From TrEMBL:
<protein>
    <recommendedName>
        <fullName>Methionine synthase</fullName>
    </recommendedName>
</protein>
<comment type="function">
    <text>Catalyzes the transfer of a methyl group from methyl-cobalamin to homocysteine, yielding enzyme-bound cob(I)alamin and methionine. Subsequently, remethylates the cofactor using methyltetrahydrofolate.</text>
</comment>
<feature type="domain" description="B12-binding N-terminal">
    <location>
        <begin position="1"/>
        <end position="87"/>
    </location>
</feature>
<comment type="similarity">
    <text>Belongs to the vitamin-B12 dependent methionine synthase family.</text>
</comment>
<feature type="domain" description="B12-binding">
    <location>
        <begin position="87"/>
        <end position="215"/>
    </location>
</feature>
Amino acid sequence: MPLFERLKQRIIDGEMNGLNADLDEAMQEKAPLQIVNEDLLGGMKVVGDLFGSGQMQLPFVLQSAEVMKTAVAHLEPHMEKDDSGGKGKLLLATVKGDVHDIGKNLVDIIVSNNGYDVVNIGIKQPINTIIEEAEKHKVDAIGMSGLLVKSTVIMKDNLEEMNSRGIADKYPVMLGGAALTRTYVENQLDEVFEGDVRYAKDAFEGLTLMDRIMS
Ligand code: B1M
């Protein structure tokens, strides 16, 4: 099987053996981020479709996710970076009840490789902790990720909680994750939130939004 097809298939099959060697060979031909976007994410999409249609069981999805994470960790040191920091600070969290973190961690990599400081507080984070950590680290913006449909409701609740605590104006909010749509964020959530809430469809749009927030 050709190299790039094999990489995608590794994600689908959850096959770790020989992964790093394939990635090293792939980096001779493509930039690391290109490999993530063009090959590895394609594999994750197939996994999502197979799982969604009942053709793949959860433990296998978990294996695929582990291969994805290992691959990204191997590629990350080879990515172009401006790690000077100091352009601004972003807090990142996956919202309460949600364990999905591959997308959030990609946002962390892209944003922190482009001159920002990122405080990544992990998964299943309630709004209390998100706000406490934002205050503690004096961040410039809050980013929330969530992939479950119920996470979109949690995000709305979180924005309402920020309104009621009077801190909506203090922290621009960036939202992302597969269950969200631009229309939901820009129409419905924007109506609810008394501050600035924006949607990022991927990690690169997350970086663009951070640039806008800090300009
Ligand atoms: Co789950 N899962 N999962 N899962 N999982 C989905 C989300 C699902 C759509 C699969 C499906 O049915 N087709 C479905 C949700 C359905 C729904 O809510 N209606 C689902 C389900 C049902 C579940 C469980 C409930 C299953 C169960 O237990 N029966 C369970 C949930 C547990 C929980 O959260 N409480 C569960 C568990 C898991 C695993 C643990 C096995 C694993 C996660 C491992 C991990 O993340 N560490 C997993 C996986 C891997 C997936 C799929 C297959 C892939 C997700 C992924 O990593 N994609 C997923 C299918 C899908 O999404 N279509 C699925 C790659 C990643 C790069 O994309 O995170 O969307 P994504 O990030 C993108 C953008 O969205 C954006 O940037 C990234 C690209 O650059 N982005 C942001 C994301 N966050 C951002 C934040 C930003 C900006 C951009 O700013 C702050």
